[in-house]
Write a structure and sequence with these properties.
Number of strands: 0
Helix content: 55-70%
Structural class: mainly alpha
Strand content: under 5%
Number of helices: 3
Distance between the termini: 12 Å
Radius of gyration: 14 Å
Order of helices and strands: HHH
């Protein structure tokens, strides 16, 4: 699978969820003082965002390209209930 609009849209979706989740977690932690929430969830969000950025910068001929694309589609399933999630992103 080469870079295409399909994956561009998925990467934009993941980035938007990353931004929204970061803001939501920060707001919850600020209001409740729940730093443990930030400590446990934000690193995972950062790693998913890092993978999405790595994929966007990766040459399609890279041996890791297809596997990383599949991993991002799997990770995106955690947002399957979001109204902007597309069923055709399922692996």
């Amino acid at each position: 699978m080469g870079k295409d609009l399909f994956m561009d849209d998925l990467l934009k979706f993941l980035h938007a969820r990353y931004e929204a989740d970061n803001h939501a977690y920060a707001d919850v932690a600020y209001r409740s003082g729940a730093n443990a929430l930030l400590d446990s969830h934000l690193p995972m969000l950062d790693l998913v965002d890092m993978l999405a950025r790595d994929y966007a910068a990766m040459d399609p001929s890279d041996a890791r390209f297809a596997g990383l694309g599949h991993a991002l589609r799997v990770l995106a399933q955690s947002y399957a209930e979001h109204p902007d999630y597309r069923e055709n992103w399922r692996p």
